[in-house]
Specification:
Blueprint lengths: L4 H15 L20 E14 L2 E14 L3 E11 L2 E3 L7 E5 L4 E6 L4 E6 L5 E6 L4 E11 L7
Antiparallel strand pairs: 1-2, 1-9, 2-3, 3-4, 3-5, 5-6, 6-7, 7-8, 8-9
Length: 153
């Protein structure tokens, strides 16, 4: 089979394209930075885990409405908790404070003690939460279900 100069050149370009990685480009929309305003709205939180009591793992689960104000404050207008199969209705409205850093990680601390590490979706649609209090193993996620302007609470 005879190859002309053009055919050889085309084959060389195709071969080079197959082994060279694509050029990386960073468009403005690829750069994401978070802050407290990233979490703004009404979120539904669901989590499961364990409390460690005297060396014994006690299962727990929670569903909770979280209202993030975009300024570092949060309220909990609805909470249901199950600990070792017993349903508990803690006081509603427990306030807390949160931070969100530029890398979309942060913290959440409630007035009555629970603390969480946060990993926030860059567009604020969801947040992964890991409880950091000693003697707890609990993780879950909260998803935004309403904007603050649509919330009637």
């Amino acid at each position: 089979m005879n190859f002309s100069g053009i055919q050889v050149a085309v084959a060389a370009v195709i071969a080079a394209a197959c082994v060279m990685p694509p050029a990386a480009s960073a468009a403005d929309e690829d750069i994401v930075s978070c802050n407290a305003r990233t979490l703004r709205g009404v979120y539904e939180f669901r989590a499961t885990g364990l409390n460690i009591v005297n060396g014994v793992a006690v299962p727990k689960a929670i569903i909770e409405t979280l209202v993030f104000d975009g300024k570092g404050n949060v309220l909990t207008p609805a909470v249901s908790l199950s600990v070792n199969g017993n349903i508990i209705q803690p006081p509603q409205g427990n306030p807390g404070v949160y931070t969100v850093d530029a890398d979309c990680t942060g913290t959440l601390t409630f007035a009555d003690g629970p603390m969480f590490d946060l990993h926030v979706n860059p567009f604020g649609k969801s947040v992964a939460m890991l409880q950091t209090n000693p003697g707890t193993v609990m993780q879950g996620a909260a998803e935004r279900v309403l904007s603050l302007s649509r919330w009637g609470g």
